[in-house]
Write a structure and sequence with these properties.
Elements (H helix, E strand, L loop, with lengths): L6 H9 L14 H10 L10 H50 L14 H11 L23 H9 L45 E4 L24 E6 L4 E5 L34
Antiparallel strand pairs: 1-2, 2-3
The structure holds zinc ion.
Length: 278
């Protein structure tokens, strides 16, 4: 019998059976792939390791942390623009009212709180369009409560008012001097000519509230949903603007202990002859 001297026979005789290498055409069995993933070695079929996933999550968290404040600021600015638009519409409503009322400001003969919370909205009613949007522009988009008027009545007891008397949600106020004399001591029908400087005399502020507190700058609490740096105001000439507190004249006299200067203007020095904007 002839000796087979071919290279493969010699190899097997010397080193034993040949080792067959796995190739791409023969993927490893499933249990091997799971073992590779557990060991952190990425296979040709793809997939992420735990470290890679954690890095991606960390990057997403960093991007979200950078974007969220920008989005929140953009939302605040959009609310401010919408609120100024509301104040403009209230200014048009007021202009139509005074034009039909011998240039007199809204006045019912009732004092505070009936006049600003109930009677004002009734006097405006003929000038507010009917339909589903009736009165919608009286609610500021930054008002997180049920509306300043409802929240004020609910939280303070309403000084005799009930929420049933409130016609609709209203975030805007009507300053005291426009239905009282300049000293604030008695009710008085006021005329547009009584305002010395309409450009700088505010008539209606936005008092958008937080969910759990009505607007109260006297207490220096962050209850103003537009932020704590400025107020959004309608002026007697019909223009609306956001004014920083440093641009505004505070109420006369030193603030009470533990409070900050008052900027609600019900007690502005000089009444309609005084200025709110410096
Ligand atoms: Zn507002």
């Amino acid at each position: 019998m002839a000796l087979d001297s071919s290279p493969s026979r010699l190899y097997q005789a010397t080193f034993g059976p040949p080792i067959v290498m796995a190739t791409a055409q023969h993927p490893p069995p499933p249990h091997d792939r799971r073992a590779r993933l557990r060991s952190g070695v990425r296979g040709r079929a793809g997939g992420f390791t735990l470290i890679e996933l954690l890095v991606v999550i960390a990057i997403i968290a960093i991007l979200a942390g950078m974007l969220l404040p920008v989005l929140a600021r953009a939302k605040k600015e959009a609310q401010r623009a919408n609120c100024l638009s509301n104040l403009h519409q209230i200014g048009f409503t007021l202009a139509m009212y005074t034009a039909d009322s011998q240039d007199c400001y809204p006045y019912s003969g009732n004092g505070w709180p009936e006049m600003p919370f109930v009677d004002l909205l009734k006097l405006y009613s003929p000038y507010i369009p009917n339909g589903t949007n009736r009165g919608a522009f009286f609610r500021c988009p930054a008002d997180q409560g049920p509306g300043f008027n409802f929240q004020w009545v609910q939280q303070t007891g309403g000084a005799g008012l009930t929420t049933n008397q409130l016609p609709f949600a209203n975030s805007y106020y009507y300053y005291f001097n426009f239905y009282n004399d300049d000293t604030g001591s008695r009710l008085q029908l006021r005329k547009t000519r009584d305002v010395t400087d309409p450009v700088r005399k505010a008539i209606a502020p936005c008092f958008a509230s937080s969910p759990h507190g009505f607007y109260n700058i006297q207490l220096d609490t962050p209850t103003d949903s537009h932020g704590r740096d400025f107020m959004l105001l309608l002026f007697a000439d019909g223009h609306a603007q956001s004014a920083k507190y440093i641009q505004l004249n505070p109420a006369p006299g030193p603030p009470a202990p533990g409070t900050v200067p008052t900027y609600n203007f019900d007690w502005t020095t000089g009444g309609l002859k005084g200025n709110d904007l410096r």
